[in-house]
Amino acid sequence: MRVEYINPFVESAFNVLKEVLQGDIKRGELYLKSTSMPVMGVAALVGLAGDVEGRVLFDMEKASALKIASAMNGEQLTAMDELVKATITELANMITAQAVTKLHELGFRFDLTPPAIFTGDNMEVSDQDVEALIVPMETPQGKIEINVAIRERG
Amino acid sequence: MNDAVNAVAEQPKVEEKKDRGEKIDFKMVTFVLAGKEYGIDIMNVKEIAHAGRFTYVPNAAPFVRGVYNLRGEIISIIDLRTMFHLPAERKDEGTLENLLILQIHDQVFGIIVDQIDKVVGINRASIQPPHPIFGDINVKYIRGIVENLSKLYIILDVEKIFMPKAKEEKEDAYRHPVSSRTVDAEPAVPTHVAPDDAADDDLELGFIREALAALRDFATSPINEAWFRHRFDEWKNIRSGRDLQLKEGGEADLYLEGFYSPYTGELWGQEYVEAFEAILPAVEGASINVWNPGCGKGFETWSIACALKRKYPDSRIKIWANDSDLLNISMAPNMVFSFDAPPEYYADFMVQGRNGWSFRQDIRDAIFFEFHDVLNTNSVPPSDLIVCRDMLSFLNPLDQKRVIVDFAEKLKKNGVAVVGANERLDFEGWEPAGTGIMTAYAKV
């Protein structure tokens, strides 16, 4: 993945999470992962198109998703209902959109696809031919792994 | 039994007065090595002794002077000066050496020093961390520096020196004589085993291979075997009789010195660029694709971009440069130079900005710097040129093969692959295409 793309994603993830969760956010060490990866339980996916092709996947445990949705809505949510899903989807959208805005300022053209959310146990995502950058974020509500895979159009 | 002079064990008595009421919670035995003052935590010092005529142990490391019978206990004697490559005066046969008998965990052994001074009590808090410029002795063996009565003492961390974590390190050097020679500690004439040079070398080579892999991820393989063997001969000269083994990173770096290609970590010089231009393939079509894995900080990528721009001014140049070291590669796209004027060769391609010189926009546009690991799927398009200097040698041999296969797959028919100055691709399907200082191969 191009070096220029890394910072916008890391920064916007940090900024957005800090803003919506109002807590102490820590970023873990960035690393690369090859294609197939297990999903922790809840995965929000935003597709990217334009000069590039790729996707951003927000991966977290169900418990963390509930806590994050509770914090963002200001009420205690205990079941994986529509509201929780919509909240997590919105979070994914906010982070990706802010990153894409930053990238746009740097002269890169990205378009977003509407986010989608997947929940379930023992899920695995595999997409061929592209390695992913993992941005681990620690929030008071739990861990979120942001998994960015972007490829230049040949 | 050993007829060496009996050790005079004298328990250290001298103590320093308390310095302005400062609490003394650390005592060290101080001594002199090559004119400098050192200290060792008194808790590690069992006693002080004077002794000589140590029993020589054949085939031990050079810093092991032999074994010694200390009141019935056979201990090995290490010459600290030789160990730290400090000058050591050879005393006459029979003259007594100054010994500190150390006890670390359950190991007892003696170290030879120039002169033993006294016991100094200090406050633990006054120990300063070692400064990297402390020469002679590797910084990681130094626990700290302390001042006492206007004298500076270097406190050695004996546990680290004599109990290294890695098993293949010095532990062997002293454990060996103790455990296997205790039984026959006769002060005999050193048994001279005629060494079989070739076999010896093979053994040493094997150890060095392992050390390079463990310390610096450098994998010896057909790619760099020629250099590795050549370097071994040089190494023997450099060490001239001293231990050939690599015990820590610094030594591995020293061994690898000279492996790296010209202009690693800097812009390529004119003669190197010219050699590079000479091996460039004849390119058909209006676009040139280059793959530059292991580009590090990006200097070589910028150099390549300028050379190609000069050679093929009308072609569309695209360079995919990648490295798996995030810190290195993240600086690459926005490289700024602080020199007053760019080197002549690059002058045409650079512009001066507020912070210094950087490359022109059209050169920037030609390069994609990517954070990418070549061992993951490589999604570069078919390339006319692959430049991969000194990266293959740092992959394990299986991965090397995989990547070379990938090179062959990604390289176009008349394409050329440039490897490190000391790397060879003498495999089926490749033929040399380099000239002089540029090592390159064409796909057959």
Report on this model:
The complex is a heterodimer of chains A (154) and B (444). Helices cover 36% and strands 36% of the residues of chain A. Chain A is globular and about 45 Å long. The model of chain A has no long low-confidence stretch (mean pLDDT 89). In chain A, helix 1 packs across helix 3 (82-105) and helix 2 (62-73) crosses helix 3. Chain A has a single domain (3-152), classed as Chemotaxis protein chec. The two termini of chain A are 13 Å apart. Chain A is built from 3 helices and 10 strands; from the N terminus they run αβββββααβββββ. Chain A is of the alpha+beta class and 154 residues long. Chain B is an alpha/beta fold and 444 residues long. Chain B folds into 3 domains: 26-181, CheA-289, Domain 4 (OB fold (Dihydrolipoamide Acetyltransferase, E2P), Beta Barrel); 197-256; 270-443, Rossmann fold (3-Layer(aba) Sandwich). Helix content of chain B is 26%, strand content 27%. Chain B is built from 12 helices and 19 strands. The model of chain B is unreliable at 1-21 and 166-195 (pLDDT under 50).
Number of structural domains of chain A: 1
What class would the helix/strand composition of chain A place it in? alpha+beta
Say what the CATH topology of the largest domain in chain B is.
Rossmann fold
CATH architecture annotation name of the largest domain in chain B: 3-Layer(aba) Sandwich
Rg of chain B, Cα atoms, Å: 29 Å
Most extensive protein-chain contact, per-chain counts: A-B, 18 and 17 residues
Mind telling me which CATH architecture of chain A this is?
3-Layer(aba) Sandwich
Portion in strands of chain B: 25-35%
Mean pLDDT of chain A: 89
Annotate the secondary structure layout.
The complex is a heterodimer of chains A (154) and B (444).
Chain A: H1 3-21, E1 26-27, E2 31-33, E3 37-39, E4 42-50, E5 52-60, H2 62-73, H3 82-105, E6 110-112, E7 116-119, E8 123-125, E9 132-139, E10 142-152
Chain B: E1 26-33, E2 36-41, E3 45-51, E4 64-70, E5 73-79, H1 80-83, E6 97-104, E7 107-113, E8 115-122, E9 142-148, E10 151-156, H2 158-162, H3 171-181, H4 197-216, H5 225-239, H6 249-256, H7 270-279, E11 287-293, H8 299-311, E12 316-323, H9 326-331, H10 344-347, E13 350-352, E14 357-359, H11 361-365, E15 367-371, E16 383-388, H12 397-410, E17 411-419, E18 430-432, E19 439-443
Parallel strand pairs in B: 2-10, 5-7, 11-12, 11-16, 12-15, 16-17
Antiparallel strand pairs in B: 1-2, 1-8, 3-6, 4-5, 6-7, 9-10, 13-14, 17-19, 18-19
Helix pairs in contact in B: 7-8
